[in-house]
Amino acid sequence: MKITENYLTERDRFSDKNINTPNYDEQIVRQKTQENPEWVHFGGGNLYRCFHGQIAQDLLNAGELETGIILVETFGEDMIDELYHGFNNRSLSVVMKSDGTFNKELLASTAESLFAHASRPEDMARLVDVFQNPSLKLVTLTITEKGYIIKDSSGQLMSQVAQDLRTTISFENLQHTMSKLTYLLLKRFLAGGAPLAVLSTDNFSHNGDRLKATVLEIAQGWQKIGHVTQAFVDYLATGDKVSFPYSMIDRITPLPNQAIAEKLTSEGIEDMVPFISAKQKMLLSAFVNTEEVHYLAIEDDFPNGRPAFEKASGVLLGNRETINKADLMKVCTCLNPLHTTLAIFGCLLGFERIYKEVQDKDLLSLIEQVGFIEGLPVVENPEIINPVDFIKEVIYQRFANPNIPDMPQRIASDMSQKIGTRFGETLKAYVAAPDKDVRALTFIPLTIAAWCRYLLAIDDKGETFEVSPDPLLTELQAHLATVTLGGEIDAHAILRPILSKQAIFGVDLLEIGLAEKIEHFFEQMIQAPGSVRRVLQETLAIHAKNIRK
Questions:
Q1: Structural domain span for residue 173
Q2: Alpha-carbon gap, residue 481 to 478, rounded angstroms
Q3: Do 329 and 305 belong to one domain?
Q4: For 348-382, what is the HEC assignment?
Q5: Average pLDDT over residues 361-372
Q6: How would you classify the pairing of strands 295-299 and 315-318?
Q7: Which 8-state DSSP code applies to residue 157?
Q8: 451-487 b/e with 16+ CB inside 10 Å = b?
Q9: How far apart are CA 80 and CA 56, in angstroms?
Q10: Got the DSSP string for 164-182?
Q11: Looking at the structure, do residues 423 and 481 belong to the same domain, yes or no?
């Protein structure tokens, strides 16, 4: 059977494959979405499909929502044409439990899928129509951290954005996703200025503020040259019409796993083999594999109303302060920094699965030190989630789950855009605290040194490996061009241009007094093959503190 078959008339066939199906008629949902759209989402990747799509499905099933999500892609048409249109806007969610069992559910909550690009004028026209409709309540985004960046590391506008600010404002002329979003907000303003919530659900702290600042910078750039009025800038800025809530999202969602694809195929479910798309060469799959545990904490600030999120599994609502604390706890201490640490060391030490890394006693001890010993002391308790319970669940249940085939190489992607969020907020907290000394930290500096070592693209065996994609990779590797394994170096001179970059780390590591320690670790790690493991073990032996589990 195929997941595109009619689940209303063929429900028994889906049931025979242990696939849960929607309680609603997707055709009715799509018609209502066409007439009165409520929810638009930018970024159609795996996290959206298994989390936002699941939330909407839960609410549709419960009768708490009558419309579906309108999915928008700006990167490439392959995801829309080959994945969404190819499978009738449906996905098969595969939740992988730690006991080895799977829960399968057919998700049909994506009502439309659009490619916001000049080559698709009909899609752009539909999207403008949606944004002009007062019924629209919220826009959510999962476009990764780099999707919000409009300036390069030197503080200059990226060429795409600079061009967007110079050109005549029309959808077909705009290139950057943030420019397109700002344009759509302009069309809503000109159509009467109905309220709207624009909600980033990407993994970085203060995501609502960064999204708002980026949109405002584009709008103000247009205002300066007379393309828009000050009234439009005020519409975005004051907060009573357009809100930019904070959020914290948490669900480990690896790339589609071949073993799961084979299992699904063996059960008689067709078209489950992941494939490479024709133009963008993306790895796509009709199914999405994810973990059972999930959290989405949202600031409850929706000026035009919202779905009944409180009735969806895993969704928590609170004020800005509460959500900010939950976000900082997860993104900056209890999960993402540990993931980052495992990604960096995992690539250097030849691991291809996260769960295998936490079976390694050195790496397990390392993330315990980064999390429990160096991170938790500066975490503020958000109350809606207990930080100690959360970090224990992360390390000993979620990371250790062998049915989550997550890879350090995936997590290492775009590391220059993430490492400041992962460790920078903790470093700032230590600097700000009168009773803390940032220079006393050991394992966060060790991990930063390991990232610099990782950039050499030579693993701990002395063999070359492929570094994960990163927009600053060429620039960063240029600073390390003279470094060789076993060679003599001036670590301070070589690393200074990297460690002093506040745009990368959130702080100047030289200024706060951590550079010398990082340089020392880096020098030790490049001495010979095996030095990364040796330095890790020696540092743990000397500095590791006992963990009360």
A1: 11-317
A2: 5
A3: no
A4: HHCCCCHHHHCCCHHHHHHHHHHHHHHHHHHCCCC
A5: 98
A6: parallel
A7: B
A8: bbbbbbebbbeeeeeebbebebbebbeebbeebeeee
A9: 19
A10: HHHS---GGG--SHHHHHH
A11: yes
Q: Is the pTM of the predicted complex or chain greater than 0.90?
A: no
pLDDT tens-place string over residues 31-68: 999 999 999 999 999 999 999 999 999 999 999 999 99
> What does the block give as tokens for 214?
């980026």
Answer whether 268's CB lies under 8 Å from 71's CB: no
339 and 225 within one domain: no
Could you say which of 266, 290, 317 is where a domain stops? Answer: 317
- The CA-based diameter of the chain, rounded to the nearest angstrom, is 72
Ranges of H-type helices in 140-286: 159-166, 177-190, 207-224, 230-237, 258-266
Q: Residues 6 or more apart from 6 whose CB is under 8 A from it?
A: none
- The tokens for 316 are 């928590």
546 Rama class: left (phi>0) / alpha (psi -120 to 50) / beta: beta
Phi and psi at residue 87, to the nearest 5° = -120, 30
Neighbours of 208 (CB within 10 A): 23
Q: Which residue do the tokens 């997941």 mark?
A: 3
Residue 486 clears pLDDT 70, i.e. is over it: yes
CA 41 – CA 71 distance, rounded (Å) = 5
Q: Judge whether residue 405 has pLDDT over 90.
A: no
Question: Is 549 part of a structural domain of the chain?
Answer: no
In this structure, the answer to whether residues 434 and 306 fall within a common structural domain is: no
CB 539 within 8 A of CB 518: no
pLDDT above 80 (res 74): yes
Please give the Cα distance from 25 to 33 (Å, whole number).
Answer: 13
Determine the pLDDT at residue 99: 84
Predicted pLDDT of residue 549: 67
CA angle 34, 39, 40 (to 5 degrees): 90
> 10 Å Cβ neighbour count for 23?
11
Q: Which candidate, 513, 508, 515, places its Cα nearest to that of 491?
A: 515
User: Within this chain, do residues 367 and 404 fall inside the same structural domain, yes or no?
Assistant: yes
Helix H or strand E encompassing 283: strand 283-284
Q: What is the pLDDT of residue 466?
A: 97
CA dist 41 and 117 (Å) reads 15
d(CA 262, CA 264): 5
Choose among 316, 310, 311: nearest CA to 294.
316
Burial class (CB in 10 A: 0-12, 13-18, 19+), 155: exposed
How many beta carbons lie within 10 A of that of residue 489, not counting itself?
16
Is residue 76 very low, low, confident or very high in pLDDT (cuts 50, 70, 90)? confident
Pairwise CA distance, residues 244 & 237, whole Å:
10
Name the domain count of the chain: 2
69 — pLDDT class (breaks 50, 70, 90): very high
Residues 275 and 191 in one domain: yes
Question: What are the DSSP E strand ranges found in 450-526?
Answer: none
